[in-house]
Amino acid sequence: MASMQGTVAVVTGATRGAGLAIARVLGERGATVYVTGRSTRGAATTDGMPGTVQDAADAVTAAGGTGVGVRCDHTMQADVEALFARVRREQGGMDLLVNNAWGGYEGAPGLPMKPFWELASAWDGMMVAGVRAALDSSRFAAPLLVERGRGLIVNTIAWAEGEYLRHLYYDLAKFSLARMAYGMAWDLKPHGVAAVALAPGWMRTERVMAAHAANPFDLASTESPEYLGRAVAALATDAQVMRWSGRVLTAGALAREYGFTDVDGRQPEPFRMPAGV
Fold first, then answer.
1. Residue tagged active-site, from 34, 105, 169, 170
2. Domains of the chain (ranges plus CATH)?
3. pLDDT tens digits for range 77-113
4. What distance in Å separates the CA atoms of residue 74 and residue 81, rounded to the nearest whole number?
5. Residue 182: active-site member
6. Using one digit for the tens of pLDDT, what is the confidence trace for 136-158?
7. What's 130's DSSP letter?
């Protein structure tokens, strides 16, 4: 397990789910991790789900790193700019950005698989709180990475090897994040900074498990969010990470490349959309 002592990371949307797991895994390796989200102690949380930025920061610290919780609404550019100004002020630079903030699920237990003309509410959440949020964070993080002459930006996405994701807004947003990573990689290459899109499989996040509790389904093909976190850590500690820049990667394939496993010792396969769905 490569040490990340001295590494400064920002993980957006880290109050729960994949973001929290990524931040915690980075903490296990000794990193300083700024975790962001809208949920804070003493206030209502998103959809009443558990987790706050303070809880996430404490989890990183308990794991062995240094957690810093920052309330940040990633739909507000002023919040995002202030976040990275704080990182510069307190750390002098950074090494890793994980764009995980996401919207579009609020008020809904899952993605409604409907024809596009019957979809309405998710557009702003996914394209503003998801795609634009990643772009804004990357714009403000890039100068700090470029100044160090190294670093990595990771956009977390969903991926099915080109298959349609069965929800038009979701499909557009997630594939936009993949294309964004490709474009950013092009501009960052001369500065030694990599950018990738990284897809997990079907994760046992709080939302997934809440849906399972309401209507049980087979969890055999699922993976823990920590599996994605281990993929991020493997990339961030790879001295040859530039070989991946601009590419769409999966946690399952990287597990085989780097030799890590999920928390139960398995290596779940990369996600594939079931045929005929």
1. 170
2. 8-258 (3.40.50.720)
3. 999 999 999 999 999 999 999 999 987 665 555 566 7
4. 10
5. no
6. 999 999 999 999 999 999 999 98
7. I
